[in-house]
Design a protein that fits this description.
This protein has 14 helices and 16 strands. By secondary structure, it is an alpha/beta fold. It folds into 2 domains: 326 residues, Glycosidases (TIM Barrel), CATH 3.20.20; 79 residues, Immunoglobulin-like. The protein has an 8-stranded parallel barrel. Helix 6 runs parallel beside helix 7 and helix 8 runs antiparallel to helix 9.
């Protein structure tokens, strides 16, 4: 499998941040969110992913405000969020700070009263009785018919509109595997006539890396959740990571401990991982791939946000995990061992409880020790040629001298990251 597309250079060291505009501020608008941009820039975020900005259908709407993912138009702005000028200003302000902006694109389905249902009913999937339908059991959407060339053309035209009119930097494509791969290929070729873009697929089908730069690490996330419940092992998780290592060379896996679906439907990362929540977050930043932060995780976010109704994130004056993420984003952006290094898993007699590994690129070395179990006072003896010289604890800033051999003890949920001083 080979891709003819190139990953935009700024993606390799990037940290992705998912923005839930509705719940982010009291106003729930683009204009109000703009005030958070300097804080996010300072925290080290580099790409903003905005959940769908298009208007939401009324017919079969879920809850009081409906799902972002049930749109009534592909080229209008959700009036709850503001105007097109407001969105354009948000993108301009983000770009002025050096941030990139990608938008959520829902190509598989529309809301039940999308204007195409009246203008082009043949563009929508229909059952034997001629009723609009969908295949996945969702109540508020209907599937598009990709057998119709005219629909494909218009959908791609709509994608190009957002690139040309608002200067966005890419797309996060919802349920990408439900859409034919050749459509995405046509879409990317067309959209990138304007400028190179970043393409993220919500899917875990290797073939989709023929078009997409990054895909979800769902398999990893589900296996880590099963481990936290006592239904899996770190051996199985390492098997998942080994499978990922056989993806195409250019492929990026997106690692996350939460996102809009996980938080609302399955619970917060603290419900899922307990004391290991932050340790797994450290993993997502230090393994090969791209990390994702969901709105409010830096607060931290201890609530399940309602999906179809207003449910405000109540921001602290200084989110308590701001510096935690700042140190991780800085490490990822600045240390070649993290953004392009090789990985060496450290063996120990605590392999069932500890994730321990080196990342290395030339003289740059990072050692990561994570106690993702519920057990306290777990020891690991590290003996390796790479563990020699001056190392800085990424979180405390304290410098240690190591000489090949060292013993470390970790409490439940504890994370230790050492960066070699070169």
């Amino acid at each position: 499998m080979k891709s003819s597309f190139q990953v935009v250079p700024w993606a390799h060291t990037a940290t992705l941040y998912e923005v839930n505009i509705r719940q982010y501020t009291i106003e729930g608008t683009f204009a109000a969110f703009i005030n958070h941009l300097p804080r996010l820039k300072e925290m080290g975020v580099t790409i903003l992913w905005l959940m769908p900005v298009t208007p939401i259908s009324i017919v079969n709407r879920q809850g009081s405000l409906g799902s972002y993912y049930a749109c009534s138009s592909y080229t209008e702005i959700n009036p709850e969020f503001g105007s097109k000028d407001d969105f354009k200003l948000l993108v301009e302000k983000a770009h002025a700070l050096g941030l990139k902006v990608i938008i959520d694109w829902v190509a598989n389905h529309t809301g039940c009263d999308h204007h195409w249902t009246k203008e082009h009913p043949d563009w929508i999937m229909q059952d034997e009785q001629g009723n609009f339908t969908e295949k996945n059991g969702w109540k508020d959407v209907i599937d598009l018919n990709f057998a119709v060339p005219e629909m494909r053309h218009e959908l791609i035209k709509a994608m190009r509109y957002w690139v040309n009119e608002f200067d966005i930097d890419g797309f996060r494509c919802d349920m990408a595997h439900l859409v034919p791969l050749d459509f995405w290929q046509q879409a990317r070729l067309s959209c990138e006539l304007t400028k190179p873009l970043f393409w993220l697929a919500e899917c875990e089908v290797q073939d989709y890396h023929q078009v997409f730069d990054a895909t979800y690490a769902w398999w990893w996330m589900h296996e880590t959740g099963r481990y936290a419940e006592g239904h899996s092992s770190l051996h199985e998780i390492r098997n998942v990571l080994h499978a990922y290592s056989h993806y195409p060379k250019h492929a990026i896996k997106l690692f996350f401990t939460s996102n809009h679906d996980e938080n609302s439907w399955n619970g917060t990362e603290y419900e899922k991982y307990g004391s290991a929540a932050l340790a797994w977050s450290v993993f997502s930043f230090t393994w090969s791939g791209m990390p994702l932060i969901y709105s409010g995780q830096e607060n931290p976010l201890l609530q399940r946000l309602a999906f179809f109704d207003k449910d405000l994130i109540e921001w602290k004056a200084q989110p308590s995990l701001h510096q935690f993420y700042q140190k991780l984003t800085s490490l990822r952006a600045e240390n070649p061992a993290i953004y392009k290094g090789e990985t060496f898993i450290l063996p120990s007699d605590q392999d069932h409880s500890l994730m321990a590994y080196f990342r290395r690129s030339g003289k740059h070395i990072v050692m990561v020790l994570l106690n993702v179990s519920k057990q306290n006072r777990l020891s690991i003896h590290v003996h390796h040629d790479w563990l020699k010289g001056s190392f800085k604890n990424v979180f405390s800033g304290i410098i240690f001298e190591f000489d090949h051999t060292e013993k470390f003890e970790l409490q439940a949920g504890e994370y230790i990251v050492y960066e070699k001083i070169v």
